[in-house]
Amino acid sequence: MHRSIRLYNESLATKDPARARRLSAEATAALRAAVQPAALAASQDRSWQALATTLSQTRSVGEGALKYSLSEECSASLKAS
Q1: Where exactly are the structural domains of the chain?
Q2: What is the number of other CB atoms lying within 10 angstroms of the CB of residue 33?
Q3: pTM for the complete prediction?
C-alpha cells in the first residue's frame, strides 16, 4: 500500500511523461497486488474490512480517487490490529 501511494505521488511529481506512465503503472500493479492479502486479512479480522473493500474497487476507480481513503483505512486498520 505505502509503496503504491509513494509511486503514485512520484508519477504526479515527475516532469518526464514516460517516467510518469511507468511509475503510475507500477503503482497500479502494487495496489492490485494488495487486494488478495487485504481480503484474507479482512476474513480473519473485521478491522481490515474497509481497506479490503476499497482495494476491491481499484479495477474500476483510479488510485487518485482512492488515495485518501486508502491512506486513512490502512492507518486505521494498523492501529486496530
Answers
A1: 2-80
A2: 13
A3: 0.78
